[in-house]
Specification:
Number of strands of chain A: 2
CATH topology of chain B: Rossmann fold
Largest sheet of chain B: 8 strands, mixed
Strand order of the largest sheet of chain B: 6-7-8-3-9-10-12-11
Number of domains of chain A: 2
CATH class of chain B: Alpha Beta
Strand content of chain B: 15-25%
Helix content of chain B: 25-40%
Number of strands of chain B: 12
CATH architecture of chain B: 3-Layer(aba) Sandwich
Radius of gyration of chain B: 21 Å
Shape of chain A: globular
CATH architecture of the largest domain in chain A: Orthogonal Bundle
Shape of chain B: globular
Order of helices and strands of chain B: EEEHEEHEHHHHHEHEHEEHHEEH
Strand order of the largest sheet of chain A: 1-2
CATH superfamily of the largest domain in chain A: MetI-like
Helix content of chain A: over 70%
Distance between the termini of chain A: 11 Å
Order of helices and strands of chain A: HHHHHHEEHHHHHHHHHH
Oligomer: heterodimer
CATH topology of the largest domain in chain A: MetI-like fold
Radius of gyration of chain A: 24 Å
Amino acid sequence: MVRFLIRRILGGAFVVLVVTLAVFVLFGPVLTWKSNISPARLYAGKNPSPQQIERVKALLGLDQPYYVQYANTLRRLVTGPTQDERDRICPGSTAAECDQLLGRFGSSFAKQRSVDSLIWSRFPVTLSLAIVAALIWMLISIPFGVLSAIRPRSLLDRGSTVFVLVGQSLPVYYIGLLALYFLAYKYGLFPLSGYENFSITNPWPWLYHLLLPATVLALQFAALYVRITRSQMLDTLNEDYVRTARAKGASESRVVVRHALRNASLPIVTMFGLDLGLLLGGAILIEVTFGLQGLGALAVEAAKRLDVPTTAGIVLFSAILIVVANIIVDVVCATLDPRIRLE
Amino acid sequence: MALLTVKNLRTTFRTDDGPVCAVDGVSLSVDAGQVLGIVGESGCGKSAMSLSIMGLLPTSATVEGSIQLGEHQLVGMPNSELRTLRGSEVAMIFQDPMTSLNPVMTIGWQLEEAVRLHQKVSRREARALAVAGLAAVAIPSPEERLKTYPHELSGGMRQRVMIAMALLNRPRLLIADEPTTALDVTTQAQILELMRDLRSEVDAAIVLITHDLGVVAEVCDEVAVMYAGRIVERASVDELFARPQHPYTWGLLASLPGRNRAGERLHQIVGSPPSLMNPPAGCRFAPRCAMAMDVCRADPAPALTEVAASGAVVACHLDAATRAREGARFASSEDSA
């Protein structure tokens, strides 16, 4: 199991490396060639003189050849900004002030802040949204998926089919706006927008602000997951070992939960991990619809302002999250199914 | 009184194209300590019958008739009651050991579960019983095997585990549905030997379902030959091999690969079993029977009648003399071909 884990982590690290290269090339040289946008020019403010641009280039190390720039980017990502960079870019400021400006993911010239501090200020919102939504959609889809698999073509099964159709066909911003109008505006059951920080002593305001956006987000996933759970369970319930369990005299609930569900859960766990990883990179539509200042909203803002370092930073950050989610999925699957540990 | 008495069993599946009667009026009985073989081609209702006894059929199936197991009448018994009998009074071994064990649970977990579902014992006692069960089916170092997963064992080993699991609660009836079909020949022989050994140890009635008359010859006391949902011949093993009565049985016997006919093409019963959705009128074997007469193709089908002085029963319109003459061509003096 330890070797399995090490292999997975090394594989993940390699993927991250490839992503950093792709991000560097796309947001560096390719952007410069294709759109004639040089990062130094963007940093230098409005109508900079050529001298100013050259100065910024030297300051940020953009005058170096690309491979040196990439090596610097990688090093910064792994170890953080060096003392030399700190002295060069924020001379005379304290370490804390400098951390606001410099980070592993680079600096945003639009906001005069490090991309790290931007990401970390937004990430809790997105994380909360994703976790609450994930809880809601799993709590809906596992029971309903299992129940419709046990009684195919029953009223419940047909009802869930309709739900799936509706959930998958209606875009989240449409359901979101409807929910906002009726539940928040007209009946005042939920706040119209905003976010409260999580607190252990009183998590209610946090949940109160998240419940509506998370539910709307969850509906779409729930629709998909009901479907997958149902089809996986249908397949598994036809397996010979399920018949064996029945032949042993196990109760129906025991057969379904202990014998079938665990075997059926592998593809569900896999998808769940990847979807969650993807969501943690920002749920743009939901965040914008509900006025949540999450990573997705940040990405949209950055893209609109041509804030290249922030956009690149978010892309890289989301990629790392997905890789991490993948590794966690692999480990969970390996604990669920001993055959996976072998390869 | 026999331990298991099945009378007039009819198992019907509802399908989109109409009802399919997979088992059509089967009657049989088995005593404790006896092995009844049920032979026939694929799709002749053998498995449907065994699943009817186990109560493991899908909800689209209806079972009529009578299945009396000891003091229990299984037909019409509510599922909750049936469940307490399954695994304790009746146990079953399935065809494919590769897929019959839960791949994500250890062997030990699955064996202990079987014990604890029916016996109020501690985990430790259940474990001890599981170890003893594995030892009984000649699995080496059973203690360590408990920690392994099914995929770490060979097919033969898995079938031994299945047999051990079935016998854990000392069932009175054991149904083995083609227990050796999915195994290679050497392993087949080992499993059959194991079953023969266990026969004498566990005082259970065994119903052995197979399409292999060779297997029947090795382990069974009695045989019922099934064709298209009905029993066409029932006799003791010796009687069946010495004086086979039904043309279908002759066909099965002729298809056995024998020592004496090396190099020759194996015999084949021409055609395939009829669809049970629209079974032919009269004798269901008539369309494939070389000796079919007009009376065979008309209702009513021949009833099971006793063959004089042998205790066997056969459902065939041919007269006794013809059956004796033709049957002799397929009889084998040595039971195991």
